[in-house]
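Input record (one chain):
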Amino acid sequence: MIDFRSLSRSDLEIWAKDLGLPAFRGQQLFNWLWKPGFRDFSQMTDFPKALRAKAAQEGLLTNLKLVADQRSVDSTSKLAWRLPDGLVVESVVIPEQSHKTLCISSQVGCAMGCRFCHTARMGFRRHLIPSEIVGQVLAALEHIEEKEQLRNLVFMGMGEPLANYGNVLKAIYILTDDLGLNFSLRRMTISTCGLIPEILRLGQDTDIGLAISLNAPDDRTRDKIMPINRRYPLPQLIDACRNYRLSRRRRITFEYLLLAGVNDSIEQAISLAKLLKGIPSKINLIPYNESSNIPFKRPVHEQILAFQQVLKKANYTAILRKSKGQDISAACGQLYTEIEA
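The corresponding structure, as predicted from the sequence alone:
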């Protein structure tokens, strides 16, 4: 059967035409698919009864089942969704001052092997398809209060988004369609550990925001904590960033997870400032959210501020990200591990 929620509006227009119907029937179906609460083809009151029956006969509606919702004292919410095949993925609702951000997953598990990451310890299970990626957003909208405040989407959950390029790109097209959930590309960001060919493709295919999970200013340090660096060394990654097609007023976000005694020295801050010189960028400094079974530590606050000050003096926008959800399983893969244990 056809997984309708994995199809774009143009795909559904073709489906309608293949049935001898006008294209607008495909548009109508697309619009229904992304209405919160839509569960059954019988709800499509603007479809003739025979066409509703035809849609039910040919297609299915992929829905995610909420199996866990952990709430933090800071209002961060960690959600776990059961997929149709029984596997579990995670999303995180992050409260900001005037809006909410949803962090979504692109894979079950991950093959990148970053040493500081819970998801990496799961190994790679499979890619998510578009209905499961966009489905996290739809399910979150159905679940959370103050839905209108959910404005930002970040592909920073479980998995490496660019390793699942085709499905993620299709999901972006579906998410931004004005007949569907109608999110703005200006409010969407995709984070990658550094898959260079896919980074360069992304800049040609869409204007989504790009974030690079950098975490080190030199190959020696990055090799130790991010195995992907041996495949795509830092000089090549930075060169790709310099050649990335950025639209007007866009900047690349460099994410830097601060690990005590590993990448948080003043010398490394100076090296980072030199490394990124000339790239339209901002730097997100993220103090490590400690976990009992991963041996890294969070730097002391004074060291974090000193690192940030070096970057500010070099005229970078260096934002210190406050850790959210420290009292719950807010690191990617933690909640999955608890559910599947």
